[in-house]
Amino acid sequence: MNNSAPIIACRQLSRHFHQGESTIVALDNVDLDVAFGEFVSLSGPSGSGKTTLLNAIGGLDRPDKGQITVEGQRLDQLSSNALAKLRLHSIGFVFQAYNLIPVLTAEENVSFVMQVQGMSAAQRRERALAVLQEVGLDDHADRRPAELSGGQQQRVAVARAIASGPRLVLADEPTANLDSHSAAELMALFTRLNEQHGITFVIATHDPRVMACTTRRITMIDGRIDTDRPQEPRPMEP
Predict the structure, then answer these.
(1) 9-35 residues labelled b (16+ CB within 10 A) or e (exposed)
(2) Per-residue pLDDT tens digits for 34-83
(3) Phi and psi (nearest 5°) for 214?
(4) What is the CATH number of domain 36-63+78-230?
(5) DSSP run (H or E) holding 170
(6) 39 Cβ neighbours under 8 A, 6+ residues apart
(7) pLDDT at site 102
């Protein structure tokens, strides 16, 4: 992969939703490049289009118009099966809801994606324990979600997102259900993964403290990019 090319390139993206007789413009001719290793926040009021843009980049939703390239692959030209394969191997997702499987342990939740990828049981266990150690939860590997705090569950979700070694992680309101201390721990973890492993992060958020942690802040209004600027990141205070 040529790292001089952007990891994400969006051109003239448009997405409309129909609500009764009304048409809602969620994305309005959006152009966006994100370089490998960037640490980006997407902000804006509810309905500004940030989650729609994140879902389009992740191949979870198809735009009505325009093109998206992720790691050199044109998402708008991929079949549903090819999109699923790209998401499985190349993109990590972290959501507001942790989306952990209640009956599985932390290790089993992290291993699940690798099982779908076809890794052996021994490989899955070794990798799952390694990434749980990376997020500070190797001593909680045998606990189920109900036995973990919200912050711990979100860190398991992060471990699951990075287990397959993606170079891109998309996070949608990842701190929304967390207290201030857990949110600060999560953003410190994202920062470390970005700086030490070069993982590209794009984070949709309402939280100004999360925005302040990133090195590039994009603000959306009415489906368009309103501002896009670099910034000096500030660690979140617990």
Answers:
(1) bbeebebeeeeeeeeebbbbebebebe
(2) 999 999 999 999 889 999 999 999 999 999 999 999 999 999 899 999 99
(3) -90, 160
(4) 3.40.50.300
(5) strand 168-172
(6) 190, 191, 194, 200, 201, 213, 214, 215, 216, 233
(7) 95
